[in-house]
Amino acid sequence: MNRREFAKQFGLSTAALTLTGTQKLWSEPTRKAKPNIVVILSDDVGYGDLSCYGGINIATPNIDALAQQGVRFTDAHADAATCTPSRYAMLTGQYAWRRDGIQVLPGDAKSLIEPGRATIASVLKSAGYATGLVGKWHLGLGEGAIDWNGRIAPGPCEVGFDDAFYFAATADRVPTVYIHNHTVVNLDPADPITVSYSRKVGDEPTGHDDPELLKMKLSEGHDGTIVDGISRIGFMTGGKAARWTDETMAKTFTDKACEFIQAHKDHPFLLYFTPSDIHVPHAPAAQFADKSECGIRCDTILQLDDCVGRVMQTLKEHNLLEDTLVLFTSDNGPVVNDGYNDNSVATLGAHRPAGQWRGGKYSVYEGGTRVPLITCWQGRIGHGVSNALVSQVDLLRSLASLVDARVPAGQAQDSQDELPVLLGRSQRGRESLIEEALFLSVRTDRWKLVDRRQRPGEHPGPAWKAPTPESMRVAKAQEDRFMPGSVDYPEAEIELYDILVDPGETHNVAAQHPEIVAKLRGLIAAARRAS
Ligand code: NG6
Ligand code: CA
Known about the structure:
Elements: H1 3-9, H2 22-27, E1 36-42, H3 61-69, E2 71-77, H4 83-92, H5 120-126, E3 130-136, E4 163-167, E5 179-180, E6 183-184, E7 194-196, E8 217-218, E9 226-227, E10 230-231, E11 235-237, H6 249-263, E12 269-274, H7 295-317, E13 324-330, E14 340-341, H8 366-369, E15 373-376, E16 384-391, H9 395-403, H10 419-422, E17 433-436, E18 440-443, E19 447-451, H11 469-482, E20 494-498, H12 514-529
Parallel strand pairs: 1-12, 1-13, 2-16, 3-4, 3-12
Antiparallel strand pairs: 2-15, 4-5, 5-6, 7-11, 8-14, 9-10, 13-15, 17-18, 18-19, 19-20
Helix pairs in contact: 6-7
2-acetamido-2-deoxy-6-O-sulfo-beta-D-galactopyranose binds at residues 43-44, 82-83, 104, 138, 170, 172, 220-222, 233, 279-280, 332, 338-339.
């Protein structure tokens, strides 16, 4: 299938962007010298999860409205197939695989972003922006042993956020409490919090010992402390008054996001809004439960869409739509069973979370990192579809360029100024990008190379070993649990796919194109040397 046929089949538009309004961007003074920036980074939302991306049996009218008024990207990438490395790369403009130890963090992990490292927040702050985080953090806190009852630092406020309302890691990890800047919200000093990832603390029931108490059964891991009928990864005790309710989390975060907009409506601001949806545990508010056609996981998509709608409505109410660049994206590809038996697999029906791409979250294939990305700035940028190759690692320099902020020397080494592409003025995206899952891969507009000898980290792990029939069976069974019908299991040491004719990554053509293999492996080697 060539690109045009492929686009036709999957409802993608190959038409050039409508660039009406784009010229005005640079010639007319904006009402504000510096536009507000709202980055909405959703969790585990796949390419096929939104109706504007051709999602089956799902309706996301608010996100679709962004796409109708802005630019919808078909080849946009998170930098990793899991959250922590992906978010690190986006915020710092540095590929996470350059450093050791950047993997999905427990809730008590220490702060990952070193003091002094530039982030989108610190760069925009230096240009006079008010900077806010609302939502999931998952980049570590403190310097080692965190005292949850005292001052929690360093954290988001030490890397550029003026105001941060967040939780530490994921909704399925302890501690299940909100933090505002440096302290746990609603903490009763008489009921102090203790957290451990290595041993049971306190005497509360756990998923392991007391499964009969669960309102949502676990399928893997997640057998620690039961909070609100759902057992989590890790153990906690205390902090009863501070614990969140899963079903109200989306509303709580969206309320905070809207309050931040309102409080800063007269001053340029960056809002980094990171909803927990649609990560597990899937526990939507009653308003959304059972409302979708594809099960509880899809119910959380409806909830996410509603949150996006509320943020846009708040911008509208304050007359800020023409002063605000909004970006919507996701931190990694989709997963269906991520450790809880919530019936998501059985109720999925025809919905295909990763769209036409192979694999999903955790996967080295396109489904792991090819995510929705929409940019919207009413009346200021063109609207249409862009097939340019773009990466979240470029946000830092692109946004710095937009607001004329200085990026400190030696920082954000992997970030490129791709502002014209993000604003729909150019369709010429990146020449290449390196992505990480368990292994590194490299993409150009045409090719994708997976190199199983290259592992993330400063000191890449042991060289790849050829799979045995048994190891392939185990890997395949594991993948199938995450994404029904997945074909993601180890095949060869080097894989090369011609994405334009083989978007599903089914035919490894490495043997036919040794020169392309050498060139792409050379790109990874050169990037590693530049560390
Ligand atoms: C995995 C968890 C998964 C999820 C993921 C992080 C198990 C079996 N699986 O280890 O449920 O929490 O980590 O997701 O415990 S991410 O989107 O933050 O990367
Ligand atoms: Ca994620």
